[in-house]
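General statements about sequence and structure are easier to judge against a single worked case. For one protein, we set the task of working out the structure tokens from the amino acid sequence alone. The sequence in question and its structure tokens are set out directly beneath this paragraph.
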Amino acid sequence: MTDVRPPDALRREGADDEPPRRRLNRISGDLQVRGVDMQRPSAARMFDYYLGGTANFAVDRQAVDQLVTEVPEAQVYARATRAFLGRLIRFLSHRGIDQFLDLGSGMPTVGNVHEIARRCRSDARVAYVEIEPEVVAHARQLLRGVDNVTVTHADIRDPRMVLSAPEVTELLDFTRPVAVLAVSILPYVPDGDDPVGLMASYRDSCVPGSYLAVSHSTPLTMTEEQVHRSERAYRVTHTPLAVRDVERIRQLLPGYELVEPGLVPLPQWRPEPDINAEQDATASANAVGGVGYLP
């Protein structure tokens, strides 16, 4: 069951009981990642804060709090995305997939791919890929000792680097079907970097029977002004946001056959009975998702 309660509800359950200094030390004290700009918000840490996590800095919380006052849908988007991830992993696992390449995996938080997949298949293998160095370091620390899970520090816009990384090649067997996950990451790939071509490159590394899962922000209930405000909020990060219309998003699954129900608003993609269903069943998530099958 996916928990999509509002972030403030999650924080009330203990996160706020931890002093801010101790919370910051947990993230950066042992990691000591050089070159991390703690004065600039990060899309990955902002997403963590949306979900009520503690792997974020004050600058991230300030950016999110400001954006939510202008675009309340941003918080709904994060919760709906996390719920969609849970459903698609269960779907793929039941289809026999036991290998996952998670592009732009973000900050580790509750409900990660390997946790969900292993509830369905104990032998599931998951290769996470992330560009932000402090996120990679934090993920590696949390996943230390966890078998068949790796974290690669790489830019997903360089498929050759990702697909040749030892953490990927030594874990995943590309002679068998693999699920490539592009969940809430392609909005941070600008048109100039050819996101359609990137997805085609990952497709070409996979054998028939593989899958590609995509979720992407799109204005379903947001006004044009809210779209501009959302994009402006992420311009100060290292990964600016690009909101696209549904037809442009559909092009991000080249060569794949969309499985039912197709590319639809996130809550409408294979909904499951859930105590939080009422919160998640809304178009205000302003995002669509779909899963493609490689014939």
The chain has a mean pLDDT of 86. The chain has 13 helices and eight strands.
